[in-house]
Amino acid sequence: MLAQVGKPAPDFNLESTKDASSAKDLGKRIRLSEYKGKWLIFFFYPLDFTFVCPTEITALSDRLDEFKEYDAEILGASCDSVHSHWAWIKTPREQNGIAGLRYPLVADYTKETARAYGVLDENSGTAQRGLFIIDPHGVLKYAVVTDDNVGRSVEETMRVLQALQTGGLCPAEWKPGAALLQKA
């Protein structure tokens, strides 16, 4: 099943860095169903130890508490191994690492999940920058894919999450507190 807005999000069951305190603890599997009842910001990035990726990953991590205020969790994914993720998490930020990461990364080593979400670059074998917002019922509500050279906006992701949670019609440039559109 290919991801489609308005339809159930493709399930996954992937090794992760969740609850790991050492390399021995790696590999706890995460399924989409674990997020039932919460909003999920699920995003793909191309590769560990690259240049744009850590800016996005740490920006989301730094604002995790704000997302939690809106009953949302964050989960990052790439086609790297869970061991590569762990090495990157242990690398200081000033050395292009993501030390202090506050949410788990999953390893889509088989590339099945990236393929299901429509972000696998078959030529390179890496994921494109895809971000998906999945509602508490497991329905895909938002999807965006960008060029590898362009990082995503945490502010825009938060705005879209808030707009989706209104359940109403949000015009362009809508911000929390602004009026919703009324159906005629």
Written overview of the protein:
This protein is an alpha+beta fold. The chain has one domain: Glutaredoxin, CATH 3.40.30.10. Helices cover 23% and strands 22% of the residues. The chain contains 5 helices and 9 strands, in the order βββααβαβαββββα. The strands form 2 sheets. The protein has a 7-stranded mixed β-sheet with strand order 2-1-5-4-3-8-9. The longest helix is centred in the C-terminal third of the chain and has 13 residues. It is globular.
Described by strand count, sense and barrel closure, the largest sheet is:
7 strands, mixed
- Strand tally is 9
Tell me the fraction of residues in β-strands, as a range. Answer: 15-25%
The structure class reads alpha+beta
Radius of gyration: 16 Å
Task: Show unreliable segments.
Answer: none
CATH-defined topology: Glutaredoxin
**Any idea what the shape is?**
globular
Report the CATH architecture: 3-Layer(aba) Sandwich
Mean pLDDT metric = 96
- The residue fraction in helices comes out at 10-25%
* Distance between the first and last residues' Cα: 36 Å
Strand order of the largest sheet: 2-1-5-4-3-8-9
Give the SSE order as H and E letters: EEEHHEHEHEEEEH
The CATH superfamily name is Glutaredoxin
In the CATH hierarchy, what is the class?
Alpha Beta
Instruction: Work out the count of structural domains.
Output: 1
